[in-house]
Amino acid sequence: MRARPQIALLEGGRLHLQDGPIDLVIGASGAAPAVRCAYRAAAERMETILDALCAELPLLRSPVEPGLCPMHGTVARRMHCAVAPYAAAHFITPMAAVAGAVADEVLGAMLGVAALDRAYVNNGGDIALHLGPGVAFTIGMVDDPERPGLFGNVRIAAGDGAGGVATSGWRGRSFSLGIADAVTVLARTAAEADAAATIVANAVDLPGHPAVLRVPARDLQPDSDLGERSVTRAVGRLDRHEIDIALAAGMVCAERLVAGGLILGAALHLQGVTETAGIVPRLTLPVAA
Amino acid sequence: MTEPKADMQDDKIRCDACPVMCYIKPGLTGACDRYANMDGELVRVDPHVILHRTLEQGGAVVPFSKTADWDGKLLPDAEAFVTAVGAGTTYPDYKPAPFIIASEVDGVDMVTVVTEGIFSYCGVKVKIDTDRHLGAERSLIKVQGSAVGHVTTSEYGSQMLSLGGVHHLTGSGKKEGRVTCETLLDLCNGKPVELTIEDGATVVVQAGKAPIVNGAPEERMRVGCGSATIGMFAKQWQGKVDEVVVVDDHITGVLSEHQAGKLLGIAETGIRMRGRRSTPGRYFQVAEPGTGWGGTDISDPLTILDPFDPATARPGQSLLMVSTTGEHFAYYRLDETLRPVEQELPPALQESVERIRENCEPALSTVLFVGGAGGSLRAGVTENPVRLTRSVKDALTYVTCGGAPVYVWPGGGITFMVDVTRVPENAFGYVPTPALVAPIEFTLRLSDYAALGGHMDHVRRVASIANGEAQRRLLHRRDNPWPLSRPGAPE
């Protein structure tokens, strides 16, 4: 017998849903009955998401075969579709998009029952967004979850077509093969952003650099989908030249994804240096008044 | 809910808290970060929920893992960081530091050299958020009649004081040294101290609290200089008043002449300011410094105006005069002879004055301790002291003060600054020399420590001091970085 999902209303009218590793903070604005209705739909949808995912877990932890979608569950299918474009050139499993896909699924359930001006489903930093006409979100980007400090803001408006934001990096909860402190990606859906953030964060790297401590993923989580692949556990101080080289490698990847229409934009952050691609504006440093 | 069970399988355990059924290795958490394997036992750590709950309750956030009853193998950090507070010193200098503590952080042996430093060359820098004039630069600051420091250069809309230093501590007689030492000690330990500035104000300073200037608590620091205030609020004044003067001891701003007014097409008003014009709409020295309007000595703002220019000014023209904190304000209309006559502030302008106030941050006194560990203290760390300095400069060694982050000043020696409010309570002490005693810790890899000539035979494991020695266990402050997990240091 396992614990049921936790449901709680937070201050500021937000909804908190948690089940196993899924931890959602949801916000919606619109007419009060619509918001209530949407929250109920989110909580109901949450009831079965984790069980359905776990039923297909072995498949979800296996590398994707291009073109084939053997999954049954809707979230699992979202995960598969989000990572499929990368399967030919990279090692990737649907798990790379799990957080974003869950966020998309819950947002979809909400929008299916209620007209909302604006809504977000934040799954541990991977966020599905809904923006009605004339509405905008400002999203603050953080490079180190242990010591949150904003390194920049991204403003997303309805016309941008961004339905998802996700962040990946070695400091986050999920493992990264690269050394980026954080890569934040804007894409059409949270699942697509999630998968792309993983790919771009992996690309920010200095292979073989002695200041980077890497450990096989299995040593940390025996059932990790990354298996024996080495994940980054610590990155020592790099000089500016090394930072630029690592970021340039990530930027090549990010620009390719922007050009291919897979993402709308990205911000890559490594040891105090930020590079941006696509619709993410160049970040300006705060100026003392 | 039922308690999850753990199936033992060699050293890993299988969590059944949720259907993911993670295998969890000792010292690590499952995919959720909520359940962990602590010495073969499945325990709930649940940082997210605790954090949420505490935040929602408005209470202090308790870092779930940095508590005394947790053995510390879960996070990449070792859990116990031994600070130098109360550790004792290396005097007479050749003794190894009282505690040289090794801990394993993610498989890498780290060592923290813990000592209290005796600082006869030390002082504090005090930043007092007020635009009120406290005293001229270089004025002496006295406590109980003894000089303990001076007013120094102002770097922004706050007044800076420099207190202590070797000259006052040991160079000028017994009483001055003792009073200076007491003053520094009290300020560093967060106690209030009354400072009298020669030909200036009397200020009660307490780290992290509002300054009390001549008996009146300061509430807010100015929103910006007079010119900046014009720029920030020009648009809100447009169409509601003909002219605005923001009175400020540093730069007084005049709306119609200022670039912001020009860009908005605000008409000339024929206003004529006293003082020295810097650039259009910006005036220096409209009055003497003081504790009146905007840090000047004036109580009637009209004294900084010359008569309006009759070629441009017209009767009925309106004028708002306001200070940079919104604390002082007055509203005038020009009569037939173009003399300003005070009238009640219209509601539309009341809002803008309120807005200035609202944008002023709370005024605080902040105290930074500045000390140099460049001398003999280093011998307690290594037999070859200069290598420690180099290692700090190369960022291989991380310096903390009672576990608080410090800024190490570039150049020679290990001169560091620390915000005293981030150091544990009563961390500072003194010796009758007189000198201050401050905690200082050096954290580095054990292998690096050996390489720089460390006292390897005195290194002890963190577990070995767990019992038997008098200890004060404190929660790690969440706003301080964990000393054993620095960027650049292996975690």
Main attributes of the structure:
heterodimer, A: alpha+beta, T-fold, two-stranded antiparallel ribbon, 7 helices, 13 strands, 28% strand, B: 491 residues, alpha+beta, 7-stranded mixed β-sheet, 8 helices, 32 strands, 15% helix, disordered C terminus
How would you describe the overall organization of this protein?
The complex is a heterodimer of chains A (289) and B (491). With 289 residues, chain A is of the alpha+beta class. Helix content of chain A is 32%, strand content 28%. Chain A has seven helices and 13 strands. In chain A, the strands form three sheets. Chain A has a nine-stranded antiparallel sheet. A two-stranded antiparallel ribbon of chain A has the order 6-7. Chain A is globular. Residues 284-289 of chain A have low confidence and may be disordered. Among the domains of chain B are: 1-75, no CATH class; 226-358, no CATH class. Chain B has eight helices and 32 strands. The two termini of chain B are 35 Å apart. The chains are: A alpha+beta (289), B alpha+beta (491). At the A-B interface, strand 2, helix 1 and strand 11 of A face strand 3 and helix 1 of B.
Indicate the topology:
The complex is a heterodimer of chains A (289) and B (491).
Chain A: E1 6-10, E2 14-19, E3 22-29, H1 32-55, H2 57-60, H3 74-83, H4 98-113, E4 118-123, E5 126-131, E6 136-142, E7 150-157, E8 164-168, E9 182-187, H5 190-203, E10 212-216, H6 217-220, E11 230-235, H7 240-259, E12 265-270, E13 273-278
Antiparallel strand pairs in A: 1-2, 2-3, 3-4, 4-5, 5-8, 6-7, 8-9, 9-12, 10-11, 12-13
Helix pairs in contact in A: 1-4, 3-4, 3-5, 4-5, 5-7
Chain B: E1 6-9, E2 12-15, E3 23-24, E4 35-38, E5 41-44, H1 47-57, E6 99-105, E7 108-119, E8 122-128, E9 140-143, E10 146-151, E11 159-164, H2 166-170, H3 174-188, E12 193-197, E13 202-205, E14 212-213, E15 216-217, H4 226-237, E16 243-247, E17 252-254, H5 259-263, E18 272-273, E19 276-277, E20 282-284, E21 305-306, E22 318-323, E23 329-334, E24 340-343, H6 347-358, E25 365-372, H7 385-393, E26 398-401, E27 404-405, E28 407-408, E29 415-419, E30 429-431, E31 435-445, H8 446-451, E32 459-461
Parallel strand pairs in B: 6-32, 16-22
Antiparallel strand pairs in B: 1-2, 2-3, 4-5, 6-7, 7-31, 8-11, 8-25, 9-10, 9-12, 10-11, 12-13, 13-14, 14-15, 16-17, 17-20, 18-21, 19-20, 22-23, 23-24, 25-29, 26-27, 26-31, 28-29, 30-31
